[in-house]
Input
Amino acid sequence: MIRRPPRSTLSSSSAASDVYKRQEYKSADDVEVNVYAFGPDRAVMRCAKLIESMIALDPAYVRLGLFRKVPDSSEVEWLCLRRINSELRPPDVPAISLKLPGKYTLMYEGFKEAALRSAWEETGVAVDTKSVFPSGMLTSDDPDYHWRVPVRYFVSEVPYDVAVTGPIESSASTYFTSWDARILKQSSDPIDQYWATAANAETGCAWVK
Output
């Protein structure tokens, strides 16, 4: 995601730029776009120009599927983690969701760069850029009425014994970690039951077939 000013900022592009230069964010996921237009048409037009300039940078949500081949087998395993979603979420988004590494692109960041950063920030896995390949993209069905950033997918094979350390400290609270497997096994949710035995409580990650 593009790094953007807080919600209380003026709706002109120059004001947004000034605030961006002063503000530092620990995680790109902490920032989102909300534009509120009040007053004369001139202010509304400035908001529109600001949004157009952000869209021109081609922002996207990037996901990187990290997989490893199981020795002496034709099977592969995918590295997954569980994200803790905010209370202010759409009704179709669960409180805790299973996901591949992925985040929004930052300002002037390429899609592959975002994929590599996401893998490092969420799993601690450093991926060789030459081993990352695009695999697909999802876009809005009707962008004329409801525009959403596209989702770009990448895949990369990693060694079977690759070290997984989990989310970096600045974003660790966003992910499901440090659970008690004994309690998790008692849950009625089948993913909880699976997670209790398959995932690492310290890293919050699991290799899923």
About this structure: The CA atoms of residues 57 and 95 lie 31 Å apart. The first helix runs from residue 13 to 22.
